[in-house]
């Protein structure tokens, strides 16, 4: 772990001041992932996600530089998170009440900071104080490094999901019972 790593929780209002930096880290982390990962689409995503009840961001800085961040929110009863989920899924799996499932939308670390334990630190910090029953996230099916890290951190694959947006990739749906903090070695 980096000695000068600092983790900080941000409210929506505080995070609004970081939007340009959040976009920069996003673009850097996804530099090789194709045209879907662009600034315009990501700004729209942030604008849709940040107003959601319970939205939370944890940012990691090293010597004052934003190295990475994670954010998510509880899934509301009318969530579209599960749109495009592939069968089979356990009965009742997609039923939400605003308190059942916390969804991690992004966990990003800039390329210069990867493989130093920052993603694990961000993940554990965000997950450490959640009151929901479970958490979920989506990982691109071909992102084997992320899938391995999540597996080491206690996440389990449930099924796959393909969102309805144009040229959407296939994602693997992962879930994790909350109240578990991983101490596994970083594999980010």
Automatic annotation (TrEMBL):
Q: Where is the N-acetyltransferase domain?
A: 5-179
What terms describe the molecular function in GO for this protein? acyltransferase activity, transferring groups other than amino-acyl groups
One Pfam family name is Acetyltransf_1
Could you tell me the superkingdom of the organism this chain comes from?
A: Bacteria
Q: Which UniProt keywords apply?
A: Transferase
The answer to whether UniProt assigns keyword Metal-binding to this entry is: no
Task: Provide the protein name.
Answer: Acetyltransferase (GNAT) family protein
The organism is: Micromonospora viridifaciens
Tell me the classification of the organism that encodes this protein.
Answer: Bacteria, Bacillati, Actinomycetota, Actinomycetes, Micromonosporales
């Amino acid at each position: 772990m980096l000695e000068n790593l600092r983790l900080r929780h941000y409210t929506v209002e505080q995070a609004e001041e970081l939007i340009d930096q959040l976009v920069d880290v996003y673009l850097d982390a996804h530099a090789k992932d194709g045209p879907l990962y662009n600034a315009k689409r990501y700004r729209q995503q942030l604008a849709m996600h940040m107003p959601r009840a319970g939205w939370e961001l944890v940012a990691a800085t090293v010597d004052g530089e934003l190295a990475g961040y994670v954010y998510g929110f509880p899934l509301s009863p009318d969530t579209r998170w599960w749109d495009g989920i592939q069968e089979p899924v356990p009965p009742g799996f997609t039923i939400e009440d605003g308190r059942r499932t916390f969804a991690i939308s992004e966990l990003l670390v800039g390329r210069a900071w990867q493989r130093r334990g920052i993603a694990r630190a961000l993940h554990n910090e965000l997950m450490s104080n959640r009151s929901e029953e479970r958490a979920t996230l989506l990982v691109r099916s071909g992102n084997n490094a992320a899938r391995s890290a999540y597996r080491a951190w206690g996440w389990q694959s449930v099924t796959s999901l393909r969102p309805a947006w144009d040229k959407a990739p296939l994602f693997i749906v992962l879930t994790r019972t909350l109240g578990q903090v991983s101490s596994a070695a970083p594999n980010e």
